[in-house]
Amino acid sequence: MSSPKRQSHARLCFTALLVVGIGFMLIGMFLAVLPYTQLDHVLSPEEFTDKAKRAATLAMLKRAGGITWLLWSLAGLVLAVLSLLRLRSEHDVSPSLPAEQADSSEPQSDHR
């Protein structure tokens, strides 16, 4: 059985991992829209109005970025889901009851 202090440290660590996971997902979303925000820095105003040039440059910027946005997003999703599952499983077990009492509080059938 773990002590309440250890449980609070575990809860704090998994909450921090949840925040990191959400941060990773936000980085992934930022990286997904980054090529669109870079267009005005890469192209001159005359080139920006040319649809073919703009589409070609956007495709090149997306290709340069690769799938890093997807990797960041998936890593964040995995961290967030695993942290939530652990926090939720820790929340379901009452820390004030020992394991024997928690098991004995469930209704037992009389099969004699």
Radius of gyration: 25 Å
User: Quick one: overall form?
Assistant: rod-shaped
Class of secondary structure makeup: mainly alpha
H and E string: HHHHH
Distance between the termini: 32 Å
Strand content: under 5%
Kindly state the percentage of residues in helix: over 70%
Please, how many helices? 5
Number of strands: 0
Multimeric status of the protein: single chain
Average the pLDDT over all residues and give the rounded result: 84
Low-confidence stretches: none
Count of all domains: 1
Query: What's the main sheet like?
Result: none
List the helices and strands and how they pair.
Layout: H1 4-42, H2 45-49, H3 51-65, H4 68-92, H5 99-104
Description of the structure:
- With about 110 residues, the chain is mainly α.
- It has one domain (about 10-90).
- Helix content is about 80%, strand content about 0%.
- Helix 1 (about 5-40) runs antiparallel to helix 4.
- The longest helix has about 40 residues, at about 5-40.
- It starts with a helix and ends in an 8-residue tail after the last helix.
- The mean pLDDT is about 85.
Short description:
This protein is mainly alpha-helical and 112 residues long. It has helices spanning 4-42, 45-49, 51-65, 68-92, 99-104.
Write out key terms for the chains shown.
112 residues, 5 helices, mainly alpha
